[in-house]
């Protein structure tokens, strides 16, 4: 069996080493890179508005960028204010929620005592030990709040500066590559902008649809705070695979604390199952999935790695970062296999016999070609063509 040649081993080893270094740097500097990447994605999304204001309405560049950024973040602040108002309404019902939660808690204690023989006193002791051992206001919670506030300040500033210095950044990228590859870099950048912009627009449409469908479903089953929970479900769905589970758990907890009937939990689960069926079979393939073409395995690994590196922002950024890497890999010589690995192109089957026959046929063709070339070179070296000389005839 033919083994890998040393250059290939060196290339694979170097690729893994560089990847490990990049992940380590991203982990250590996640508070720097996460808001910067978010701002880059928002800048790509807002660029058409800036171009419209500057080219069609003749706004000065700085004014066009300022108006666009301010309007975009005013919309975001309005959405957050609405969620805060809904949360305030939810907090006003805390006494009633506490009463319902106490009833469900006692019912659960009785069921555990009947099924497992654990008395109420033992259960209360266990709960008290768990609560006393948990530090609600830990340093990590304070750090998360600080990071959120920092993101809210840095992302608008980064977005503004990226839009202002767009030409400078593009010229910098062009100067990094040799002149013969400028056209290739231009194509890559255009593809990146198209993929990112389409993906973010698709996400916004997906969030709106899920929010409306979930809120409507909660309204028909008689759930309180259906608007708040619908929007929250749509926003948490931005975190692939994990967000919808968190949203479902929160909705079930709210259902238990606002209603005395346990059956409402099954209705909540039913609404989420129906919404996710519509989302996975209609919204994602038509609106979001066709824009990025990332397979589920790469998406799951990317979300886990992103969450490990930067927490919730890393989970959200995992898919667009993978989409951008896929575009770069597919357009770079030598990196095409990595782009194929991330993509969603699914072969029907894999047959070692077929692969072996294919390579055997190629090797046979190469050997025949080499033999023909050798025979041709031999014929050129013997111009007599095998005819006897006159001396030999005599």
UniProtKB/TrEMBL annotation:
Residue ranges of the region described as Disordered: 365-394
Entry keyword set: Cell membrane, Membrane, Transmembrane, Transmembrane helix, Transport
CC terms in the record's Gene Ontology section: plasma membrane
Cellular localisation: Cell membrane
Annotated TM spans: 9-26, 62-85, 149-174, 195-221, 227-250, 262-278, 298-325
Protein name per the record: AI-2E family transporter
Similarity field: Belongs to the autoinducer-2 exporter (AI-2E) (TC 2.A.86) family.
Domain of life: Bacteria
Residue ranges, compositional bias (Basic and acidic residues): 365-379
InterPro entries: AI-2E-like
Annotated membrane topology: Multi-pass membrane protein
A Pfam family this chain is assigned to: AI-2E_transport
Entry keyword annotation includes Transit peptide: no
Presence of the UniProt keyword Transmembrane helix in the record: yes
GO biological process: transmembrane transport
């Amino acid at each position: 069996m033919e083994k890998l040649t040393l250059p290939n081993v060196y290339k694979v080893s170097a690729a893994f080493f560089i990847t490990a270094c990049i992940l380590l740097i991203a982990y250590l500097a996640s508070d720097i890179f996460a808001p910067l990447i978010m701002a880059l994605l928002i800048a790509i999304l807002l660029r058409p508005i800036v171009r419209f204001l500057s080219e069609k309405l003749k706004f000065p560049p700085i004014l066009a960028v300022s108006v666009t950024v301010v309007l975009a973040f005013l919309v975001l602040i309005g959405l957050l204010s609405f969620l805060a108002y809904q949360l305030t309404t939810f907090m006003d019902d805390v006494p009633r929620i506490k009463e319902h939660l106490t009833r469900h808690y006692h019912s659960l204690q009785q069921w555990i005592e009947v099924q497992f023989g654990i008395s109420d006193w033992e259960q209360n002791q266990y709960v008290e030990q768990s609560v006393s051992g948990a530090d609600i206001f830990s340093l990590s919670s304070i750090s998360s709040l600080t990071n959120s506030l920092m993101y809210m300040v840095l992302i608008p500033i980064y977005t503004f500066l990226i839009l202002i210095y767009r030409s400078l950044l593009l010229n910098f990228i062009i100067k990094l590559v040799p002149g013969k590859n400028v056209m290739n870099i231009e194509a890559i950048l255009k593809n990146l902008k198209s993929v990112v912009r389409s993906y973010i627009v698709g996400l916004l449409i997906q969030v709106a649809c899920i929010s409306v469908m979930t809120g409507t479903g909660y309204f028909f089953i008689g759930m309180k705070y259906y608007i708040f929970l619908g929007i929250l479900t749509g926003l948490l769905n931005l975190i692939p695979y994990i967000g919808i589970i968190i949203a479902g758990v929160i909705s079930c907890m709210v259902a238990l604390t606002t209603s005395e009937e346990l059956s409402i939990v099954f209705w909540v689960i039913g609404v989420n199952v129906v919404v996710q069926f519509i989302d996975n079979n209609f919204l994602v393939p038509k609106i979001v999935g066709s824009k990025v073409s990332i397979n589920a395995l790469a998406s799951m690994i990317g979300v886990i790695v992103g969450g490990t590196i930067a927490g919730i922002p890393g989970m959200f950024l995992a898919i667009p970062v993978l989409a951008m890497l896929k575009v770069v890999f597919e357009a770079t010589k030598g990196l095409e296999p990595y782009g194929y690995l991330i993509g969603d192109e699914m072969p029907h089957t894999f047959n070692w016999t077929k692969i072996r026959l294919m390579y055997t046929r190629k090797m046979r063709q190469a050997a025949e070609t080499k033999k023909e070339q050798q025979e041709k070179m031999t014929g050129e070296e013997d111009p007599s063509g095998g005819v006897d000389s006159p001396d030999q005839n005599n």
